[in-house]
Design brief:
78 residues, mainly alpha, 5 helices, 60% helix
Length: 78
């Protein structure tokens, strides 16, 4: 799965003309962290995956095509 993510994120960055430095500043992360994620040496957390998808304006399924994405709604009853 990591190889798919690595290929997919590189493809999205290239197709949208986005530089890694812009993405790092948008996500407020160190460039070395993003570099490790893209290289497949570090796996992003679920929150980071959501942030990446949102910053790139792309669905999570584009980055991780084999992942099942569930939307959970929380309801609090007083």
């Amino acid at each position: 799965m990591q190889d798919n993510f690595k290929t997919n994120i590189k493809s999205v960055l290239k197709s949208k003309g986005i530089k890694q430095s812009w993405l790092c500043s948008k996500l407020n992360i160190n460039p070395s962290v993003l570099s490790l994620i893209i290289a497949g040496k570090r796996y992003p957390s679920q929150d980071r995956i959501r942030s990446l998808a949102k910053a790139l304006n792309t669905p999570i399924k584009t980055l991780f095509p084999t992942t099942r994405v569930k939307k959970i709604n929380w309801y609090f009853i007083d």
